[in-house]
Amino acid sequence: MSVCIKDVAKKAGVSISTVSKALNDKSTVSSSTAERIRGIADEMGYVPNPRARVFATKETKQIIFVADIPKDTAFYNPHIFEIIMGLQKSVSSKGYSLLVETVDKKRVLEFMSSLYAKNMADSLVIHASIISKRLESLIVKSNVPHLIIGQPDFQSTLSWIDTDNTLSGAVAVRYLLKKDYYPIAFVGGKADDMISAHRFEGAEREAKRNNLSFSENNVLSTSSTIVSGMNAAKKILKMETRPRAVLCANSVIAFGLMQEFRNQDVRVPKDIAVMTFDRYPFSDFTEPRVTSVDMDMFEIGKEAGSILIKNLSHPNLRIQTFTSEPCIYEREST
Taking phi first (over 0 means left), then psi (-120 to 50 degrees means alpha), and beta for anything else, what does residue 163 get? Predict the structure, then answer.
């Protein structure tokens, strides 16, 4: 059973208000008394309940989006900004401000502990890339309404919303087979890239549904960079039996692949068709333009905001759902 402020006050032999003042560094409590109370609170494992504090001090009308957004994110992952814009539109319509905090995964526990202690927000949106089991424990203990953007890569009790990458993979292969593109190669990311893994899972499932399969040689891994995409293209062109189409796990890989095909005078789609996921800004600047399976990330952000607003009224609400149907943006590469 969790320790409450009343328990700390009883053990310290003081009032609840004195404990509250001591833990919030109020000058009306002597330094020696405050130090003793903080020591007792730490010893008992007391964690302030941010929701209770919000109730006492009134809501902040702020929602914070926490993610690791390093330099060049706009180039490699522009969709995160679409999510933020959709989220902002949704929560601002209900009178809430959206703050964006970027934090390295190595520092996220320290940062989140500080954020909770300062009672900075009514609710949190957290990108799945920084979620860990230790952070999950802290989030649950805090009792602050939250929503994770992306499904955690472990069994979790957290609330999350995500695009269905497995379904996207199936939709892509269904489209390629309908266009008579077979055999198909899949060029994915690193082994720990769960988005790539889920997209391949869906692609493989759809192939099996049509009594087909991906040969081992036709499944390549990359570091999801333009250079690694170019290297994957070189390997594909050296294959004894070339695939009729290449499905890339993301548009950065596809961009590198297309560059190398062009360098070696490979005609797309006449010699090899190319398809990817997510419509990146630079996708329209390749020649030919690349066909993609896309999700409306702005709408996902808006939906996340709507869920958060509901959660503020129903703190025990738990959401774990996929949203947004994938759609095909057909371009000249297929």
Answer: beta
